[in-house]
Amino acid sequence: MGKVYLVGAGPGDEELLSVKARRLFETADVFVYDALVSTEILSMIPEEKKVIYVGKRKGNHVKSQAEIQEILLKETKKGNTVVRLKGGDPFVFGRGGEEALELEKEGVSFEIIPGVTSALAALAYAGIPVTHRDFASSFCVVTAHKRKEKDEEIDYVSLVRMGGTLVFLMGVSVLEEILNGLRMAGMAPDMPAAVVENGTTSTQRCILSTVESLTMEAKKAKIHAPAVIVVGKVCNLAKKLSWTKKRKLGGKKILVTRPRKRNEGLSSRLRSLGAQVIEFPTISLNPIEENEKLDQVLRTKEQRWYVFTSPEGVETFFAWLAERKMDIRHIWKTEDKLAVIGSATACELKKRGFFPDLMPKEYYAKDLGECLASAVKEGERVVLLRAREGSAEILKPLKEKEIPITDIPLYDTTVGGKPWLIRKIEKEFQTGTIDCVTFTSASTVKGFVKSFPGLDYGKIHAVCIGRKTKEEADRFGFLSVFAKEAKIDAVIDRILEI
Ligand code: SAH
Question: pTM to 2 decimals?
Answer without folding.
Answer: 0.90
